[in-house]
Known about the structure:
Chains A, B: This is DNA-binding transcriptional ArsR family regulator. By secondary structure, chain A is α+β, with helices and mostly antiparallel strands.
Amino acid sequence: MATAFAALADPHRRQILDLLRARERAVSELVDQLGLSQPGVSKHLRTLREADLVTVRHDAQRRWYGLCPEPLTEVDDWLAPYRAFWSDRLDALERHLEENPD
Amino acid sequence: MATAFAALADPHRRQILDLLRARERAVSELVDQLGLSQPGVSKHLRTLREADLVTVRHDAQRRWYGLCPEPLTEVDDWLAPYRAFWSDRLDALERHLEENPD
DNA sequence: ACTGAGGATGACCAATTGGTTATATAACTG
DNA sequence: CAGTTATATAACCAATTGGTCATCCTCAGT
Lengths: 102, 102
C-alpha cells in the first residue's frame, strides 16, 4: 500500500534493506544488527512488507526475510530526470575547469 | 538537517520538485498547482529548504524557488547497488526467455 | 504614512510514526 | 502434554507530521 518513498524515509528500514542485499536474514539477526527491540524490528518489517520491498520464507519458527527490489524502480524512475540535471551541472563544471586551467 | 529521503517521503514535496525541474516558481504558483493553502505550501518549502533541495531568490515581495538537485545524489548513491540487483533479475529473465523460446 | 500583495510564522489539531513492554501465536523438543 | 524458541501483535506513549486559520513582516505604490 505505502509507497517505496515512505518506506525509505526511515534509516533503520534502509539499513534492513542494506542487510538483505547481501543475503536472507532471520528476524533475530536483524534485531542484533539494528540494536532495536524485536517488536520494533517486526514493525519495520511489516512496513517493508506492505511496500512489497521484502519477501518472507517460512522455515519452522524462523522467518527468512529477503530483498524484493522491484518497487525501488519507482524511486529510480522518479530520480531519472534529476540525474540528467546534476550531470549537466557536473559537465558544466568540468568544461569550466578545462577552459580555465588553474 | 533532514535527509533527502525524508524530504521525498511526501508526495506534495515530490510534486514541488517536479515543478521546479522545469523552471523557478513563485510560491503563489505552487499554491495554485498543489491545491493546498499558502501556509501549507510554505511549510513544505521550509522542509525542502532544510534539506537543501531548493534555493530561494528574493525579488521584491516574491520568492522565486529553484531546484537544487545535489542532495538527491545521496538517494541515487544509496540506490546504486540495488540497481545492479534488479538489472540482474531482468538479465536472468531475458536469458531464461532466450534459452526457452516459447 | 497607508494600503495591499506575497510569504513566512505561530498556534492549533487530528493522525501517524517510531519506539517500548507485555502478551499471543506457532512450531519444535523433551 | 509442558516447556522453549522465534516472531507477530496489542496496547501504550511521546514526538512528529501534514494540514488548517489567523497573524505578522516586508516591500511597492500611492
